[in-house]
Design a protein that fits this description.
With 484 residues, the chain is an alpha/beta fold.
């Protein structure tokens, strides 16, 4: 081979193959390999035929074909497969070489791998890649984090193949240290869970409450996609609802109502619990998928408990206007909660997250791309230390505009008997977040009553804890206190 490759990529499943073709289109020479050598041969003979892509059956040969410092990107299943692949590569790598994990790895694994590779003189990057098959082929959103010293070497490649905004900005920028890149991708997927659940609740209200056929629902989503709700998920929803099966009937109505998941939404919810952040909307979206999986039990419950949707008298056009506002208001809460989790993680892990850059990375190429991500970027450009998205003047105004319709939708759904867990929990969070006093004072009293857990007082400095012998029979010993 006369010319060394710019990058090596291991793992030729759908995402890996399409990323390689994308890299080739942008003038980068790529060396590839895969666990099964047959897939390498098939790729070179079919999809990669006529390109400058070179393939190898052995990892060592692929690595030898890359110019130094070598860059090797892994597109393999998260977890143990990443560690095993890296283990196979290590004897053939040298200090200063770079490993990029482009899979959906847990950020805690990436934290560990960054440390382990640094001890060997290698630079490790955890890069979240979003956009699915189409994004990988024509321009994904890429969220790299890890060893900053690697950024200048990989920047031309990753930004070259990434999606671009209308102004030509690449939807790829440095996120932060250690596992920050995969953490941002994890939160992206959590927000994706939330957005999808909100859209499904809107569809449920349209079909089962308003009695609208799929084609009419598609027309509504088409109109919504021209305004403030303009996004990839709204766009594909209107296409899905318009799609008919061979018999001319809407295909969506024939699909079993049990949702699957790969775990990243659950990871986001678990991380929120670990960080002490009320990520209520994404949590409900995850639980809603769990509930959908109880199909047989739900069918039995419908028979034994009944599932009548009540006619509570709603004018269709008015309700659809409310529903558009409700979707938008809840969507704002979803992103606000996601950014709250970013701030907590940055503080706890010592990361310097690029908040405005994250919004830019999500502007195109990824599943949650939408119009208003530009407004998020603008908010952080105007105020880099913005404490909460809802405090930005633009979003403060927008959520106020959405509030009345949002409340009308949730209250109507409750009276009609239609479950709207994501829409409702988002509204509850908004109401609770704005309260300067919550009933947790009673909760603290209860904890102190039965377990001597102590409490703080409004008339005393924060950090001083008190205990009351509520029954006159308790002792002076307390259990102490802590914050989860």
């Amino acid at each position: 081979m006369s010319e060394l490759a710019d990058i090596g990529l291991y793992g030729l499943a759908v995402m890996g193959q399409n990323l390689v073709l994308n890299m080739n289109d942008h003038g980068f020479k790529v060396a590839v390999s895969n666990r099964s050598s047959g897939k390498v041969d098939a790729f070179l003979e079919q999809e990669a035929q006529g390109t400058s892509i070179v393939g190898f059956h052995e990892v060592k040969d692929m690595i030898a074909a890359i110019r130094k410092p070598r860059v090797v990107m892994l597109m393999v299943k998260a977890g143990k497969p990443v560690d095993l692949t890296m283990e196979a590569m290590l004897p053939h790598l040298e200090p200063g070489d770079i490993i990029i994990d482009g899979g959906n790895s847990n950020f805690e694994d990436t934290n560990r791998r960054c440390k382990e590779m640094a001890e060997k003189g290698l630079l490790f990057i955890g890069a979240g890649v979003s956009g699915g098959e189409e994004g990988a082929r024509h321009g994904p959103s890429i969220m790299p984090g890890g060893h900053k010293d690697a950024w200048e070497r990989i920047k031309p490649i990753l930004q070259g193949v990434a999606a671009k905004t209308e102004s030509g900005e690449p939807c790829c920028d440095w996120v932060g240290e250690d596992g920050a890149g995969h953490f941002v991708k994890m939160v992206h997927n959590g927000i994706e869970y939330g957005d999808m659940q909100l859209i499904c609740e809107a569809y449920d209200l349209m079909t089962n409450f308003l009695g609208m056929p799929a084609k009419e629902c598609s027309e509504v989503f088409t109109e919504w996609n021209k305004g403030k709700l303009d996004s990839y998920l709204i766009e594909i929803t209107k296409n899905i609802l318009a799609y008919v099966d061979e018999d001319g009937e809407p295909l969506v109505e024939k699909i079993l109502d049990t949702a699957g998941q790969k775990g990243t939404g659950k990871w986001t919810a678990v991380s929120a619990l670990d960080q002490g952040i009320p990520l209520t909307l994404i949590g409900e979206a995850v639980f809603s998928r769990f509930l959908s999986a109880l199909k047989d039990e739900r069918v039995e419950a419908a028979q034994k408990l009944g599932s009548e949707i009540k006619n509570v008298g709603a004018q269709k056009e008015t309700f659809l206007g409310w529903l558009e506002d409700a979707l938008y208001g809840a969507k704002l809460i979803s992103y606000a909660q996601g950014y709250m989790l970013f701030r907590a993680a940055a503080k706890n892990f010592g990361w310097n997250l690029n908040y405005g850059g994250i919004a830019l990375m999500w502007r195109e190429g990824c599943i949650i791309r939408s119009r208003f991500l530009g407004d998020i970027k603008a908010a952080f450009e105007a105020e880099p230390d913005l404490e909460n998205l809802l405090f930005a003047p633009y979003f403060k105004e927008q959520i106020k505009k959405a509030e009345e319709g949002w409340r009308n939708v949730v209250s109507t759904a409750v009276r009609a008997g239609v479950a709207v867990p994501a829409l409702a929990t988002a509204l509850s969070f908004y109401d609770g977040y704005r309260r300067d006093r919550l009933p947790a004072n009673l909760l603290q009293a209860q904890r102190d009553y039965f377990g001597a857990h102590t409490y703080e007082r409004l008339d005393k400095p924060r950090g001083e804890f008190f205990h009351t012998d509520w029954t006159g029979e308790g002792g002076r010993v307390t259990s102490g206190t802590y914050n989860a």
